[in-house]
Amino acid sequence: MVQTSAKPLTLSEFLVLPETEPASEYIDGRIIQKPMLQGEHSAIQTELAPAINLVVKPKQIARAFCVLRCSFGDNRSIVPDISVFTWDRIPRQENGRIANIFSIAPDWTIEILSPDQSQTKVTKNILHCLKYGTQMGWLIDPKEQSVFVYLPNQPTTFYEELETQLPVPEFAKDFSLTVEGLFSWLLD
Questions:
Q1: Count of C-beta atoms within a 10 Å radius of residue 147
Q2: Which of 9, 63, 116, 157 has the least CB density, counted as fewest CB within 10 Å?
């Protein structure tokens, strides 16, 4: 759903608006509400973030966050399905607690395509992240059982062979997941 106003909002004006459910993103002066999660999307997101955290969080390497607003760059405030930040880049309050506002790009951005979602819009968000320092982006397509992997200044690759090990950023090298493992979460 696209919301428009007579006068385009600035990013700072958008950020003071009440949050919506599902979340809305601010892209180039437009407010675009993300689609409501459906079963496959929700199942993958619910399993993937904890699986990543199980490997990277105990050693304080990184941490995965679900549906976290990230506002950075000239004109975007996006809400990736999963945002992974290396430990030393997680915004923190003075007392050491995690900050509520993340004004930097994630180190690894993961999007799960919903049936009614524009693949082009999601891809543009991943490319925006890469432009601002994200090391890797995944676009998971449950319908096609494929994963597109985006890296800075490299061609996009896709993975659909079940036994194929999915690439991960260097900081998450101990995290291992095959295409089959990822999509098996839709069967359990």
A1: 22
A2: 116
